Amino acid sequence: MNFQKKRLQLLSILLLLLVAGLYLSMIKGSVETSFTDLVDFLIHSDQTHAKIFIHLRLSRALLAFLVGASLSLSGVILQGYFQNPIAGPFVVGVSSGASFGAVLALFLGLNLSLLGFSAQSLFAFGSGFAIVSLVYLLSQRKGVFKVETLLLTGIAAGALASSLTSFLIFFKSESFEQAIFWLLGSFQLADWNQIRVVFFYLLFCFFLSQWFAKDMNLLVLGDETAQSLGCPVNRIRRIYLAVSTLLAASAVSVSGIIGFVGLIVPHWVRILIGPDHRFLFFYSSLVGGIFLMFCDLLARTILPGSELPIGIITAIVGAPFFIYLLNQQR
Amino acid sequence: MSRYNIYAFSLVFVLGVALASGQERMMKDDLGYTHTWGVPPQRIVSLAPNITEILFALGLEEEIVGVTRYCNYPNQAKTKGKIGGMVDPDLEKIISLQPDLIIAFRGNPLRLIHRLKDLQLPVFVFEQGTALESVFSLIMKIGLITHRENPAAALVDSLRKDYERIQACLANVKHIPRVYVNIHGKGLWTCGKDSFLNDLVVKAKGLNIAAEIPRSWLAYNREEIIHQNPEFIIVVTRSQKDFSEIKEWIIRESHLESVLAVKKESIHFLNEDFVTRSGPRIFMALEQLSRILHPNSFRDCQ
User: Fold this and answer.
1) Chain centre to alpha carbon of residue B110
2) Closest chain B residue to A188 measured between Cα atoms?
3) Which residue in A136, A289, A329, B227 has the most C-beta neighbors within 10 A?
4) How far apart are CA A105 and CA A110, in angstroms?
């Protein structure tokens, strides 16, 4: 009962923050605009303001929101999945795997697209899945499923993917600066196409996760308990692994690697509303989206006249909090 | 000879310009996008320092409304609106300047250029050539799209005269010295076959010891430098002060004592802004480098 009240409080605060974040994202920028400019534009739109408000600022804020939501949802799923609070898309190797695929497509100069998805996102999905499947298979030997092995394999496989990425970047050294923005993430070139793709995946994955949320609650109790309570453990595990990979890959393919979001946001939300996955999925997505939207606002306004890769900001905010959290739990 | 070349150039470009209707001009940029325009551009944004230098050299000072934060030449460029860097330009800023022509160069990421296209901004893209002569065609094309054909032809003509004069001075050079080019400060970074800088060394009648490697920039192997034993080390950097520090580092700390250039302290400075930008000043750099490598050839030569 207590949590229900908390959830309502949290929801109203989050909605307020969302509106505030969207408003600030629309107003703030290198070109000075005020509230009246925005109202003015909404009444009689002109080309220049349409481009700045709609195609640059709004699209960027929305993409940051969607990517933040995807990463956080992926993080919640992985933490439940591994019954381990240090799991996250980066820790399990999904992000690095996806990033390798995207960079590979970029450097091969592939311009093809399939069903509206660019070579870059297709490659990201492909190699993200490949890494996760590898990790999954390696840690499931002899029918026994060991979480420690899984995490460690994930870290090793992720490191392998990262070094392959670095190799590509080093080899194609003309694009060094470009590479930095890729490795630390950026929404500099957000466009509506990317928003469409990420939105589609997020929606699909969210409903799928929500559908099995009760099973996830059982899964957290341990595989044997879950099985004895009637949860089809293996099937549920496969579904959630696929869903979390899809989410992380779609996020990485549009923005590069953004660390810590998928790791810390689920923690915040669990502290606030408790461990029930029926609500965790929704609130983590919302909190993650809002968090990344504000981070991006900082990334593009903190240094006048230039961009800061957003990964720097999420790490500066995220890492100390994570350390604090670990310390609290001990 | 030079004049004929220019006429040949001009002819090619005029052929490239289809006169669709009346004064309307049409031209394809180096990414294959077709541009159509009628009046000379009034508000130009440059996305690269070499483009900025060329625009100023063509007398377009009034028309330039935005440049990158790296555009520091000529001095007036510093007073223009800044649109951010080459890799991270500020799209809002560009839009707010309401440009009718944005000139991009392929140091700008492709994704960025596509994004500018998506925003329906009039961006014209030039590919970076790997030969010094590509500067001539670059200037001619910029002249054409900005309606400054005559100043462009005059500039190319005078640059080509410079170039031919230097070549004439170097005509009788017999010994091609081995050169190690040091870029990016302390650390053994150098330029390979695919770089503009490599062509500068070739045209100055030097042999870049990393010329075998089919890349633009790379970290070179120390043993390989010792093995190749270059006669000259050229330090490409921003200022004389940086140069002194790097020279000191090469002599004292880089463990290249056995290399001929280090023994003879034949370590020389080239201004990074001149040599990494395919703009008009590249030929000044060519002359500097040629004089360093072949001082005797310039004795009886202007």
Assistant:
1) 19
2) B88
3) A289
4) 6
Q: Which one of A29, A178, A181 has the shortest CB-CB distance to B92?
A: A29
Question: Residue B190: phi, psi to the nearest 5?
Answer: -145, -175
- Please report, as a single letter, which amino acid is at residue A83: Q
d(C-alpha B80, C-alpha B142), whole Å: 19
Yes or no, beta carbons of B92 and A305 under 8 Å apart: no
Please judge whether B98 and A306 are an interchain contact, meaning their C-beta atoms are less than 8 angstroms apart. Answer: no
Query: Which residue in B91, B106, B108, B115 has the most chain A C-beta atoms within 10 A of its own C-beta, making it the best mutation to test that interface?
Result: B91
b/e code A137-148 from CB counts within 10 Å (16+ = b) = eebeeeeebeee
ipTM: 0.74
Reduced to 3 states (helix: H, G, I; strand: E, B; else coil), residue B191 is: strand
Contact B215 A188 (CB under 8 A): no
Q: What angle do CA A22, A24, A29 make, to 5 degrees?
A: 115
User: How far apart are alpha carbons B168 and B162 in whole angstroms?
Assistant: 10
pLDDT tens digits for A42-98? 887 777 778 888 888 999 999 999 999 999 999 999 888 877 777 788 778 888 898
Spatial CA neighbour of A158 closest among A198, A197, A130, A119: A130
pLDDT bracket for residue A113 (50, 70, 90): low
Rg for chain A, CA atoms, rounded: 20
C-alpha to C-alpha distances, B91 to A23, A188, A253, A306, B115, nearest whole angstrom:
19, 9, 21, 10, 9
Which residue of B lies nearest to A173 if distances are taken between CA atoms? B217
Q: How far apart are CA B114 and CA A68, in angstroms?
A: 25
Fill in the amino acid letter for B2. Answer: S
Among A147-156, A295-304, B4-13, whose mean pLDDT is lowest? B4-13
Please name the member of A51, A181, A191 whose beta carbon is closest to the beta carbon of B88.
A181
A173 contacts on B by Cβ (under 8 Å):
215-218
Strands (E), B171-254: 178-182, 189-191, 207-208, 217-219, 232-237
CB of B215 less than 8 A from some CB of A = yes
Q: How far apart are CA A206 and CA B173, in angstroms?
A: 72
Name which of B86, B111, B215 is nearest A189 (Cβ-Cβ).
Answer: B111
B91 at interface of A, judged by CB pairs closer than 8 A: yes
